[in-house]
Amino acid sequence: MPRARIFYREETDYVRDVRSYLHDFAEQTGKEIEVAEVDGREGQDLVRLYDLHTLPAILVTAEDGRLLYRHRGMPLPLMREIAAWL
User: Which of 6, 17, 42, 45 is most buried as measured by Cβ atoms within 10 A of its Cβ?
Assistant: First the structure.
């Protein structure tokens, strides 16, 4: 099953938009986007691997790690774009 993760930092001007997006996404789709720890080891590895240097970023990967969808920066994508992959 595909996995969606969002990468962002708390101390930013867009954090409120990201939190609202995550809440609305779960409520409207019944699905979840995982929050990735950008500054943790795994998060940093994923940022490099998938070229996510512009935040916020949303990444959808297959079970084998293959990239299915990537969005970088604001504005955030339409929720249906992400939900279609999950």
Answer: 6
